[in-house]
Every structure is written in C-alpha cells, then in structure tokens.
Amino acid sequence: MTFVARMESRIQGFAVIGDLKWHVWDGVVADLWDVSCGDNAEGYYVSPDPRLFVTLGVTGDGAFVVEGAQGEPRRHNQAFSMAYIPAGVPIRGRVEGLKRIRHLDLHFDAATLTRRFGRSLDRDALQMSRLQFRDDRIATLAGLIAAECGSERKVHDLYGEGLLNALFACVFQIDRPSAARRRTPLSRRKLRLVTDYIDAHCLDRIRLADLAALTGLSETAISHAFKAATGVPPHRWQMQARIDRAKAMMAHEAASLGDIAQATGFFDQAHLTRVFKSVVGLTPGAWMKSVGRQ
To answer: For a FRET experiment, which of 47, 181, 201, 238 has its CA 20 to 30 Å from that of 17?
Structure first.
C-alpha cells in the first residue's frame, strides 16, 4: 500500500518558486520546496505522521523561526538546520528577514519504520520533538535525498530507500544489534514459506517488506533470521534462484547469453556473467563446457 502524506496547514506570505518536486518511497513522502517569503510570511502546521524538516538554503539576513506547543522559538538561519516534529504535534513557523528558503520535508509512516528496524527502534524517540538541531551525517544524506527528488532522471528506488534507512538510523540513533547475540533462525515452516516465495517470484523485485509480511516479523528480523537459517541473506538466495533458471535455459535451449540474461532478470550479459561466477564459481561459458554444452 502506498503511503500518502497528510498535513493540515494554514499559511500566508509564501509563494512556491517553480514546480514542487517530490518523490514517494516505501513509507516515506519527500517534498522539495523552494519558496519566496513575504514580510509577514507565517504558517501553522500539524500532521498525523512524523516529519523531518531540513533547511537546504536561505536567502536574506534572518531566519525561519519554529515554535512548538510550549512557545519555545527555534531559529533556522543556515543550510542543514533541522527539526523533527512527532505525529500530531502542532507547530507555528514565521519568517524574520528572509527572502527565500529551500527545504526538504520528509513525512513518514511510523509503522513502516517499526517494520524496518523492529525492536532496535526506540518508540519513545518517535514522540520527542527536536525543533532545532544539526548533524553532519544527516545533512549529507538529506542533501542526496533532495538531489534525487529534484533529478529529472530517477535512479532505482533501492537507492533512495538505502539513503532513508541510513538517515533514520542517524536521526533516531538506532544502534546495530549486538553481534555477539546469537541470531534465532527461521522455523522450518517459515523458512519453507519464504524460500518457496522467493523461488516463485525470483524474476520480480522482492522487498524485505514482502518477506516480513509473510512471516509476521520486522524487516530487520526476517533478514537476520533468514541468514541464520540458510547462511545467506534473502537477496543472495534470490540471485541463486535466478542462476538456477539461467542454468536450465543454458542446458536445454539454444538462446544467447544476452537473451538468457534478459529472461532471468539481469541487466545484461555482463551482469549475468558476474553473478553467475560469484554463485557457481565458473563463467557461463566454462559451466556449459563442464556439462557438455558448447
């Protein structure tokens, strides 16, 4: 199901420059704003979803001032000044001396975040307002996300989702689970359920969210439990399933490697060759010779 950002806002004195640029990833809506500011520009905002506000640039000798429920003012007067607003928390914003502001808004679904990180996520952190802070790592990630929103040629969604996972890990200080803790493998029933699903859909895009839904686990938990049971992560299992399909075609059909690569979900022949060698230990040509196919 696609996540849709919802926010109540009442604003005056702002005018959007150009077109609003945005992008939707799994559980996240990213809005890239570029607005001019009148002398008395101000707004009131409240959202049922958590939101991260990141200033990308300001023009003018002043600030965008954010006030929470307690009236505590926080000034955003330089690039990569940020604010985190929990779900349902109203804020007011007003402009003091600014002519223009560019900013990135990330609206996200808390349930999706919990699904991704499981027990590693501190749920209390989602309820804590942070109306003004800076962090170099978050700034770098937010800049890359903003660039992707503004790009005319979008790359694969896994790129943006990876950036978002890293950003949320920094924002909410999500620690890596202890490596010393022994991972509990999937039960035999759940492992069969997951492997059957991957084998049947190996030519499609399979997300951890899909596997998590099958097992009732979080994305983090299913990844660790699957690897504990099989010795490889889910994506590697999927690549092995694709290679099995490619082997069957090479053994019984006269198709070219380029056609086989296309039919088995690889970008091209070179991509098939790299993955095939990493899985099988031989190139496709060497493998075909080993099974009597020239």
So the answer is: 47
**pLDDT at 107 (0 to 100):** 96
Can you read off the two tokens belonging to residue 286?
A: 């060497």
Cβ 291 vs Cβ 285: under 8 Å: no
What pLDDT, in 10s, does the model give residues 7-27?
Answer: 888 999 999 999 889 999 999
Question: What is the tens place of the pLDDT at every residue in 227-256?
Answer: 999 988 898 999 999 999 999 999 888 889
Per-residue b/e over 35-62, b at no fewer than 16 CB within 10 Å?
bebeeebbbebbbebbbbbbbbebeeeb
Compute the distance between CA of residue 88 and CA of residue 1 in angstroms, rounded to an integer.
22
Q: Which of 105-109, 114-118, 182-186, 221-225 has the highest mean pLDDT?
A: 105-109
pLDDT tens, position by position, 176-202: 665 445 678 999 999 999 999 999 999
Which DSSP string corresponds to 95-134?
EES-SEEEEEEEEE-HHHHHHHHGGGS-GGGGG--EEEE-
- Count other C-beta atoms under 10 Å from residue 210's C-beta: 17
> H or E element: which one contains 61?
none
CB atoms within 10 A of CB 1: 7
Helix (H) or strand (E) holding 205: none
Strands (E), the chain: 8-16, 21-25, 28-46, 51-59, 63-67, 73-76, 82-85, 91-96, 100-108, 130-133
Residue type, 50: P
If one counts every other C-beta atom within 10 angstroms of the C-beta of residue 223, the result is: 19
Q: What are phi and psi of 35, to 5 degrees?
A: -130, 145
